[in-house]
Fold these 2 entries.
Entry 1:
Amino acid sequence: MKLLNLFCVIAGLWRMLSASRSCPDLVIDGCRCTSERHMELSRQTVRVKVVCSGAELMDTFQPSFLPNTTVSLVLSHNKISLLKNCSFLGLSYLERLDLKNNLISTIKPGAFRGLAALRRLDLSNNRIGCLSPEMFEDLANLSKLNLSGNIFSSLPEGLFTHFLSLQVLYFSSESLYCDCHLQWLLLWARANAVRIGNGTPCAYPTHLHGLEFRSLREHQLKCVGPLELPLFQLIPSQRQVVFRGDRLPLQCTASYLDESVRLQWSHNGRPVSTHEQSGILVEESIVHDCCQVTRELILSNIDIGLSGHWTCLVTSSRGNSSQSMEIVVLETSAPYCPAERVTNNKGEYRWPRTLAGILAFLPCLPHPFSTPQHPSVPREKKAWRRCDRMGRWAEEDYTQCAYANEFTRVLYQFSQMVINATNAQVLAQQLSAFTNRAALFDDKMDVIFVTHIMERLLRFVDRIQDVCWETTYRTWPVT
Ligand SMILES: *[C@@H]1O[C@H](CO)[C@@H](O)[C@H](O)[C@H]1NC(C)=O
Ligand SMILES: *[C@@H]1O[C@H](CO)[C@@H](O)[C@H](O)[C@H]1NC(C)=O
Ligand SMILES: *[C@@H]1O[C@H](CO)[C@@H](O)[C@H](O)[C@H]1NC(C)=O
Ligand SMILES: *[C@@H]1O[C@H](CO)[C@@H](O)[C@H](O)[C@H]1NC(C)=O
Ligand SMILES: *[C@@H]1O[C@H](CO)[C@@H](O)[C@H](O)[C@H]1NC(C)=O
Ligand SMILES: *[C@@H]1O[C@H](CO)[C@@H](O)[C@H](O)[C@H]1NC(C)=O
């Protein structure tokens, strides 16, 4: 154990020493630096490797922070989103650059300038949609490129003209569209003896889904057949019920497969354009990351006339596709039942403002000591009330709810009991004792329940003795 500790300390010291000697300027949190010495033609060379993986980096740091003898730089699993012009200038010995699992969406022209010795570049699992040959200037010595796991669906012709030594290329993507726009790549790869790596399957069109790009023949890469959009969505997509005067933005987004893709809005089948008096504003289309196009439609001060079906239509050289949603505009004067407070023998219920034709529900009020009738069924008990088509409160039902008054609640329970010859006497005595204070009779239901119980008790009247009915009923106002 002691020996192991000592070994660790020594190993740590050695690493620090070698690090400080090879990377004197490396002061970036989360980076590790290692170096190897090589004898080459009786001359000592240092090969420095820098690993800054999972270091929460938002940006590539100044290349001058690294020793110019760095041969390997790993910046994977960070939060880098942009590669600026000359991001790595000065690292003229760099052979491997790993930028996988970042958030890179933009690579400026000349980003890799000065990396003449670079042989392996990993840009996989980023958000790259726009690609141009200028991004890859100076990478004449690159032999392996991984572009997999990005958001492009195609690669522009001539993209790899700066690569003179490329041997292997990976470019799988969830939306890779294997059509005539990728024919050039097959020809170029063949002419330049570039191997398309295994693990680069087509995603679209459906009949080529899952097939390796490398195994395709030129004639399979066609631009015929129906338009298939990897992405096409309308927000909101569900029917919207709005009040007159409201504002509602609608957003349509689709894959930007090629320059012929256009988005148009229509209302009940007729194309719409901006019309300020009607509160219709159709925004310009915006292309994001060269692979998605969005067009927004903003409806403001909505009038009844804007009810109906709103459609986003994608047109392209290969065909059209559309998606619709419905808007229902209600008059602000649409009939509704006013909010109302109802107090009855089940408690106090506050009914909210409710649209005509709608059944409103409220949960039953909880009462202390009230035992649920069916404890095994935990279903929430509710009262309901209908608002009719004219906006007047109509039928209502509180039967699921318990009586608010404890006296009524107990009488209700009495009334639910089975009365037979055995228990009639006892029940009669209990009822008599319970009801002997007239002041407690507060609800007409109390009288109804007592009458109901009495009727059933009277069937056993010959057995009921010595029960003195002292109760004097109050006269009940009939409502
Ligand atoms: C690398 O840096 C050292 C000094 O740190 C310098 O002497 C040398 O010329 C540099 N080499 C290159 C290729 O820039
Ligand atoms: C990139 O930077 C270099 C030198 O800093 C400059 O000469 C070149 O014009 C820049 N390129 C672009 C496209 O900005
Ligand atoms: C390019 O790679 C070859 C070996 O594949 C190497 O000899 C040459 O020095 C490299 N070029 C640069 C500029 O590093
Ligand atoms: C390329 O990147 C993808 C995604 O990170 C990965 O699955 C694949 O193994 C990589 N290919 C190579 C040869 O490194
Ligand atoms: C696509 O829509 C455009 C514009 O509405 C129309 O001119 C064209 O004929 C449509 N194409 C197909 C194949 O439906
Ligand atoms: C009367 O009802 C009670 C309670 O329901 C029961 O326990 C009793 O057995 C019944 N007696 C007769 C005679 O049915």
Entry 2:
Amino acid sequence: MNRIWNSIVGKLWATILLLVSFVLFIVTALLLEFLDNFHTNQAEDSLRREAAIIGKLVLDHKDESSLQVIINDILDNETNAMIIGEDEEVKYAFHSGLNQERIEKKILNDSMLFPPLKKQSPVLKEMILPSITEEGVMEQFIVISYPFAADANIQGTVVIYQSLEAIHRTTKRTTHIVFLSAFIAFILTTIFAFFLSTRITSPLRDMKRAAFELSKGNFDTKLPVQQNDEIGQLATAFNQMGRQLKYHVELISQDKEQLSSILTSMTDAVITFNRDYTILLSNPQAERLLQNWYFKSGAKEDRNPIPPEIFHMLEHVITFAEEVEDELELGGQFYAISISPLYSGNSIRGAVAVLRDMTDQHKLEKLRSDFIANVSHELRTPISMLQGYSEAIIDGVTANDEERNEMIQIIHDESKRMGRLVTDLLDLARMESGHMRLYKEDLSVIPFLSRIVNKFMQVARDAHVELAYEFPEDEQIMMHVDEDRLEQVFTNLIDNAIRHTQEGGHVTLRVEKYADAVEINVTDTGVGIPVEDLPYIFERFYKADKARTRGKGGTGLGLAIAKNIIDSHGGTITAARGEVCGTKFSCILPLKKL
Ligand SMILES: Nc1ncnc2c1ncn2[C@@H]1O[C@H](COP(=O)(O)OP(=O)(O)OP(=O)(O)O)[C@@H](O)[C@H]1O
Ligand SMILES: [Mg+2]
């Protein structure tokens, strides 16, 4: 019920009804008043007319019986009449009912109806007289006294009286009719008002529904435009608004998608911050970075954890409204960070940070500087020796030929060493740039390895190291390889092993054949390689002896070259600590495909 009063239909309906009821009320009241007066006046007029006619008849007709008949005809049923003679006695009475005598007496005694000075004008008066139809009831009557005269002499008076009841009856009937029509008018207004308001508001209701649809994001909602009035124009405007909204929302979402796909496909991490340093938006790269940092740093539970370094930079950017660039290490990775302020109008609403992963560049940079340091270190020692000894010879510091020959021998050794270093470096550079040419041919593994072992037998004997090999018997193992290069690898491995094994130790070469590969192990019982160094031994210039004393002579390039050679043959080389002590190098090489 409350809903109908809250709706426009209800309000419009109620207003129209109120208005119509008010108008009907006033019209009915005025009409009733008017009808009442009208009926009374009409009744009075007709009584006057009848009185005048009767007066004339009495004067003209001398025949009393016909006179009575005519007068009876003239008077209508409700009207009563008396003819009073000059002696003020009732001569005739028409339509007289009950209480005739009391009525006559009352009328005759009324001084207004029969003024003492006889005038020739009718008098009209309302009186309360006993009822003609009911006993013991008083009623209101209109009484007219009409004196009639012949030759200016008053001959008598006609008195006509009529109960007001009759007039009231007519008035009551008309009142009924008026009320009935007002009621019908009210009912019709109710129905029409309801239909009118529903008709006016039904497009409004459609509009309301459409507006709700629009607010839910359903921009395709269309309103039918049926009329050309304000409501029709409203519907047109509404449809236009829907189209515009759809267009703009699509534009915004397209922009957003474009932006987000750009952000997602970027290699750089991008984070947008609010003024309160909370993260507004970040791309997957940034999320990964933050998560990495979060786990590695073990930061405390925080809603928006950011590294403190970035936080400080952000503070600076937001406080001083200037761009900040820096390089940082986060969770083991190096990043170039640039943070710039974001403006909204003139005020700063946040900042955007772009983080570029510089770890690889860093590594390369380090590798380059290490390489230069190593090369110059490796070259400086022999060069200074060459200089020293050659100066000594030039200055003639040597005591005898033997000493001089010794010095020349050292100079010769060192220059050979330098030459070897340069060749090794060149080899390595060529291999790493992919320019190494392999001259592959079929090679039987066992004779090949036996030859290398035999080459080292004397060296091992001199070093008091037992060099042994374990080959599978009667096995023909064929590989398709560059023999010289492989010799370089195993020469280095065996040389390393003998050099790093104390007197009385063992160096063993073991060959095992698999379905499509052969594994060649070089094991020794020497000093071994520290576990933490194992991942680095294949890098250039790696030496377990950090002091780089020259006692055991190499350049630290042998294993790097070996790894490159094995890799380019499609094999693998690994190093591990020996089961008891020492080191175990294993090469796995593919067998020749049959
Ligand atoms: N079998 C081994 N036992 C202990 N340490 C070893 C062994 N093999 C290699 N190393 C360590 O690894 C380092 C690198 O070896 P690599 O063969 O690359 O260089 P090098 O022998 O010093 O010099 P080059 O082989 O160029 O003459 C060596 O200096 C040594 O410290
Ligand atoms: Mg070596």
